[in-house]
Each structure stands twice: as structure tokens, then as C-alpha cells.
Amino acid sequence: MNDLFGKLHFILLLGETGSGKGVFANHYYRGLVTKYSADKLKFLFLDMTGVDYKLLDSPYLYKKTITSPELAIKELEGIANNDFSGHKLIVHIEEADMVYHDKDRLESALFNIINKDNITVIFSTSRLDPEYLDKWLQYAGLRIIFKLSNEADSKYLAGSDIACKLEPGRKILIAKNASIVLPPLSKKEAEKNRELTL
Question: Are the C-beta atoms of residues 74 and 105 closer than 8 Å to each other?
């Protein structure tokens, strides 16, 4: 996954609560930190749950974690109008609250950002609403699907009922028309990545 940085500008992490999305994201981010120094890589966490990334403090942070949907959208609008040629930026959006706050402004900023070469947006949610996802699935370079609670969501996102049968931590990577089912992290790796430290 680390070698995909810069090639994928919009990644969706989709699955029910507790399916392993956060552990997977933390594992991925730790891998990036081992590859890039803090002056070359920055993270922006827009954590609408106020749980996973709220207390994070690190030289890798672009700004402190934002938990307000309005402030998060304003931040994305600012990023869309700035040049980030000096470093790479990962924008992690936790949950879909911003969509329901102001979908049009969010999408305008988001779709401008994902065209920038050195920015990757990772959107993680358990709210699988076709009202916004239909469009977002077209823009996503990669969707990573974790366990889903029902067959309808699985067919919508994975094309079959496979995602509602996944064990916790297993995931399906889908890019264009290709997909692969990956095993979960080891127990040791999963435990290490429950909380993020950068």
C-alpha cells in the first residue's frame, strides 16, 4: 500500500462499525511515517466522531484534529485553493457528518483536492448512503470494503454478498473492475494499530 501513495488520490474505507477500518488506516499511516520524514509528509484528520484522532499530537500533523463539520469543510476549501508542492498531505475524513452538513460545499472542495498530485484523501465511514456514495464511487481510485451488515450493502459496494460474510479485519480491495480479498492483520499488528501514534 505504501507504494500507492501519490498514485491514488481518493480512497474509500467502507464497513460497519468495528470492522477494522480504523486499525487498517492506522497501520497504513504508520507505514507512511516510516517512509517519509515529518517535513515531507503531513496528516490532516477531520474526525467527526471526535474519538479516534482527537487527542493526536505529532510533528506530522498539518493542523490539530478538526471535529466540527463546518470547520472541516472550511479547511478543505482552503486546501483546495492552496499549493502543497513542498510536501505530501494525507487528509483523513472520519464518518459522513460533513456530507449531511453541506454536501455541495464538501463535494466541491473534495473533488478539487483529489485532482492535486501530492494530496490523498481517505474517507472512512460506516454510513453507506447511495445519496452521496453513488457519485463518490466513480471518483475513488480504490475502495477498501470491510465487513458489511447486510447483503444489499454488499451487493451495492462489492457486486456480490461477499462483504457481509467477511470475518472482522478481512477486507476487499476494489480498483476499477478488479478485486482481491485480503486477510486481516495479525493479532499483534491489530493490537499495535488500535490507536495511532505518529
Answer: no
